[in-house]
Design goal:
two-stranded parallel ribbon; 13 helices; disordered C terminus; binds S-adenosyl-L-homocysteine
């Protein structure tokens, strides 16, 4: 048997929760104990090579390496921007590609993870959506992004994770839940944020989990007309239903929902829009994160980033009404690592035809 053929038959262990890992070790002596050792090596210490699990006997390490795999994605490209943000293009076992972004910010460190190798939701302002749907990542492929980065970059304690890379995490709930369980060995769910375009059933499902990450919601417009123009998903779950789901969402004490609000010049960045947004969110435990639009050659020409004064005025308007409103700084823009700029490289774009210059705003901002 060639080594390639032998490799195909090996069982992947990365991404298995402890009960599944224990089951997979079928036939291994003392397997509940061994499973706990391997689990701790992987998810507490980040050891992804059987040979380096020196707490196991040489014989067992050899047996494991013969029967099992621990696959990390292959780094195809690595781009560091002047602000220190590093974008990794990763190739998965089946050739699908994803991007993961490492964002240092003064004392803090955030990894922006992908949950799918593409995105079916086709938001008009997002490059990932432009490439179209991609498959769900497995729990192992989600966790592997963190384990790989742990190996490549020295990651500090107190790492933050945001599911704001490629894909819609709430369309991949099972893998997301398993991944969070594995990651919880070193990272508290309080340091993990899952951002959604607003899938009501997914939000309800997340609300039933016993350990919940922070929730961020991509709102982007204060009314259905403009939100549907940007995000087709809004036609399935319009604002009233979405906000109702958020109102019934069981938030833990002292937590708030983050509302992401994309700012597009002349479309949703007027002071009346800030007021309309504030009215929509009234009564919700919310903080607002304003994201000035990040342009990209594949995105419609009419979409523009507002200037800094407009962004500040918008933020101040919300703050003056008592809201916590922050502006997301643009990070990694020169290497196309900023929000909405992640793309699949294993295939051509097909999500939406590139109609440069043709995409005029469907809804003009409403007065008042
Ligand atoms: N699918 C999830 C998570 C991925 S996006 C979601 O929709 O929330 C992470 C954030 O980047 C979202 O708020 C998204 O709306 C925003 N984003 C997408 N394209 C952008 C762009 N061109 N400029 C600025 N932010 C963008």
């Amino acid at each position: 048997m060639s080594s390639a053929a032998a490799g195909v038959e090996k069982t992947e262990l990365l991404g298995l929760t402890l009960p599944h890992l224990t089951r997979a070790l079928d036939g291994t002596a003392d397997r509940p104990f061994r499973a706990r050792q391997i689990y701790a090596a992987l998810y507490q210490r980040g050891v992804t090579d059987f040979a380096a699990m020196t707490e196991l006997s040489t014989a067992l390490r050899g047996e494991l390496a013969a029967r099992f795999r621990l696959s990390l994605p292959e780094v195809v490209d690595e781009r560091r921007s002047a602000d220190g943000t590093t974008k990794y293009l990763l190739r998965l076992a089946d050739g699908a590609s994803i991007e993961t972004v490492d964002i240092p910010d003064r004392g803090r460190r955030t990894l922006c993870l992908s949950s799918q190798a593409g995105c079916a939701l086709a938001c008009s302002f997002c490059v990932t959506g432009h490439w179209g749907a991609g498959r769900n990542l497995t729990a192992g492929e989600i966790v592997a992004q963190v384990l790989l980065l742990r190996r490549l970059a020295s990651l500090p304690e107190g790492l933050n994770l945001v599911f704001m890379g490629m894909g819609e995490p709430l369309l991949n709930l099972d893998a997301l839940r398993d991944a969070l369980e594995l990651l919880s060995a070193t990272i508290s769910p309080r340091r993990i944020t899952v951002s959604t375009a607003g899938l009501v059933p997914g939000i309800d499902a997340l609300g039933r989990w016993s350990r919940r990450p922070n929730l961020a919601l991509s709102l982007h417009a204060p009314d259905d007309e403009r939100r549907s123009a940007l995000m087709p998903i809004n036609r399935t779950w319009p604002l009233a239903e979405l906000l109702a789901a958020l109102r019934r969402y069981p938030l833990e004490a002292r937590r708030r929902i983050t509302f992401e609000y994309l700012l597009l010049a002349g479309f949703n960045d007027r002071l009346e829009d800030a007021d309309a947004l504030a009215r929509r969110l009234r009564g919700l435990p919310a903080k607002i994160n304003l994201i000035p639009f990040n342009p990209d050659p594949v995105l419609p020409d009419w979409m523009r980033r507002p200037d800094e004064t407009a962004v500040e005025r918008f933020r101040d308007r919300l703050a003056s009404q008592g809201w916590t409103a922050t502006v997301r700084r643009q990070r990694g823009h020169e290497v196309a690592a900023a929000c909405g700029q992640l793309r699949a490289f294993d295939r051509a774009p097909h999500g939406r035809p590139a109609r440069r210059g043709a995409g005029a705003p469907i809804a003009a901002p409403k007065p008042g």
